[in-house]
Write a structure and sequence with these properties.
367 residues; alpha+beta; Rossmann fold; Jelly Rolls; 9-stranded mixed beta sheet; 6-stranded antiparallel beta sheet; 5 helices; 21 strands; elongated
Length: 367
């Protein structure tokens, strides 16, 4: 592939930029009636700073009354930061009555939940809450030892900040009633902290639940966690995923042009015949077209006004390109960058067919 071809592919890809999105609106809630984590205040400060840096509209509160009525209506995501209750005392639970209704309605209308560490040690007497989180805190080994961790999902936005294998210091939770359908993102090796259990233990996961998206991480016990760039990127990726603002990259699609080739008259005038390799056709969610077309002797793509920037790159043969009355001859290794609104076309010259790669951005993702 020549440097010029690489250049124009990069240029067209950049031209197909996504439209700007509205900022995420998130409620950071850190009320606790069980064990009060010393990391809550550093966590609030770090998440506030992250939100300001990333353009996230963040409101912080410790008042359970925020869940009254339509209090969650203006938010895309709810962040539960170490929101513990006392499992031995049901009266410490604040999601009761209308507040339960408000949280359920928020999730069921597609709201996202980011639950951090002690949020799993909460509302033990409300089964729906446990199902929403994906599991319930059971116990943790003493202290905050350094554990060996494994990234289990390289595609999820909440996991991409971590390498495949890494070590970090935290308080390591075990869980009851773990939902078998959760999507594990990170696990830790119990043996690395002296535990007898040999099975990898999940410490971060994601799942879709009753119309909403829930991301949970058991990391975040220590104040130092909120000074770790990788951990903050972990939270940010989870927040964007939960708010449905971080669409995951689709798996790549490999296309064999031999499976797409067909003989047809060229578009815009049907002048002569061509061999068309419709390379990008049928690729879901694409934002640009990438096509190869061979114009047979005497064939041409007739003049037409384009509604996007477009590139013609010559692979073989010779041709003459037209743009708003100006013409230029192209040979292999040459490309014409054509601008939106111009009246453009191209015709084959000489005795050899003209083979082109044609690429342009789409105005909206194609199905």
């Amino acid at each position: 592939m020549t440097r010029l071809l690489v250049w124009f592919l990069l240029l067209v890809t950049c031209a197909a930029s996504a439209p700007a999105q509205e900022p995420i609106r998130a409620l950071l809630f850190s009320h606790s009636t069980g064990w009060r984590h010393d990391s809550i205040e550093p966590g609030i400060a770090a998440i506030r700073a992250m939100a300001a840096r990333e353009g996230i509209a963040l409101t912080a509160s410790e008042d359970p009354a925020v869940f009254a009525g339509e209090g969650l209506a203006g938010y895309d995501a709810l962040i539960l930061l170490n929101t513990t209750t006392d499992g031995r005392r049901p009266e410490t639970e604040w999601f009761t009555g209308a507040r339960r209704d408000a949280l359920q309605a928020f999730v069921r209308r597609g709201g996202g939940v980011v639950a951090i560490h002690g949020a799993a040690d909460s509302h033990h007497h409300w089964p729906w809450y446990r199902r929403m989180i994906g599991g319930r805190f059971q116990r943790h080994p003493p202290g905050t030892p350094e554990a060996a961790l494994t990234r289990r999902d390289a595609a999820h936005p909440a996991a991409t900040a971590f390498p495949p294998e890494f070590r970090r210091t935290d308080e390591w939770y075990y869980f009851d009633d773990l939902d078998p359908t959760i999507r594990p993102l990170v696990t830790f090796d119990p043996g690395s902290i002296g535990e007898a259990d040999a099975n990898p233990n999940p410490v971060a996961w994601a799942h879709e639940f009753e119309g909403g998206r829930v991301f949970y991480t058991a990391m975040g016990h220590t104040a130092g966690s909120y000074a770790e760039p990788a951990f903050l990127a972990h939270l940010l990726g989870g927040l964007r995923w939960a708010a449905d603002a971080a669409p995951e990259a689709r798996p790549m699609v490999v296309v064999d042009e031999a499976e797409r080739v067909r003989e047809e008259s060229p578009p815009h005038g049907r002048i002569g015949m061509s061999t068309a390799h419709r390379i990008s056709d049928g690729i879901p969610g694409r934002t640009m077209e990438f096509r190869k077309r061979t114009l047979h002797v005497g064939a041409a793509i007739g003049a037409h006004v384009i509604d996007h920037d477009e590139v013609y790159y010559v692979v073989a043969g010779a041709g003459e390109v037209l743009s708003d009355g100006r013409t230029a001859r192209l040979r292999p290794g040459m490309a014409a960058y054509l601008y939106r609104g111009a009246n453009v076309g191209i015709r084959q010259l000489g005795t050899e067919p003209l083979t082109l790669i044609i690429s342009y951005p789409l105005n909206a993702p194609a199905d």
